[in-house]
Amino acid sequence: MKIVFLETDSLGDDVDLSIFDSLGEVIKYNKSETDKNSTRIKEADILVVNKIPMKEENLKEAKDLKLICITGTGTNMVDFPYVNGRGIAVANVKGYSTQSVVQHTFALLFYLYEKLSHYDAFVKSGGYVRSDIFSCFDEKFNELYGKTWGIIGLGDIGKGVAGIAGAFGCKVVYYSTSGRNQNKEYTRVDFDTLLNNSDIISIHAPLNKDTENLIGEEALSKMKPSALLLNLGRGQIIDEAALYRALSEGWIAGAGLDVLRQEPMAADNPLLAIQDSKRLIITPHIAWATVEARKRCVEEVLENMKAFLRGEERNIVKQ
Questions:
Q1: Which of 2, 55, 125, 235 could form a disulfide with 79 if both were Cys (CB 3.0 to 4.6 A apart)?
Q2: Is 180 a known active-site residue?
């Protein structure tokens, strides 16, 4: 049994992969190399990947491949008609990062909402040493209490954010991109209502035909000038050129992003031109990546493998 990891760098260097040794020969490659991936895949019985496309080009020579384990939830990199035709199973991991992403949502929020970059710079530059009063009111900020928090994507992460936002005294509303979510705990509204009324909008939705480019110029123009936009879902949900214009022209107050349309970030991404951290913070897709979450992710992959070898279906994705 050969287990091949193709992107161990995507799990971090502090995660113990020796737990897989009891299942067979484990071969580890630290990062994807397009010209070498198909050769590395060739002898695998079980393949562990994150972002590498799983399609005929990479898989056609992998005659013994039985299982693809994805170290994440999304499966849009998999050509399911091809793998289904080959009888190759695909397993993902779910729920391992919920608390981490919820936590990071609020990290992005407060960095922007309380203008922390400004006040940190004020102190470190010596401004507070020179101040003639005990406080500073250069940048105004508000309480969350009584504000409206709009959520796009009320799954487990969205509900986690909703619960904490409610604890801060926010009114929580949500928009169902599929039209099928009927959560009775929170108020469901149409898209325009969410855009018009929300003081904070956070995105926790998957990428699909209903969400791709959901936030473009039209949507951004309907938001409050004082509103903040947070994206913890998928980068392709936001039109980044439109967001650049909205931030540059003051359509909205700020944005916090953990995901981008292209990752790593493209050198020509227009958002790089916005250097004002009071208006924009971008983190490099780290919301999911607490130590605990990455450890849970690896343990879930191991359990998926064990179940498959026992003939059981655990987190097997069928499309």
A1: 55
A2: no
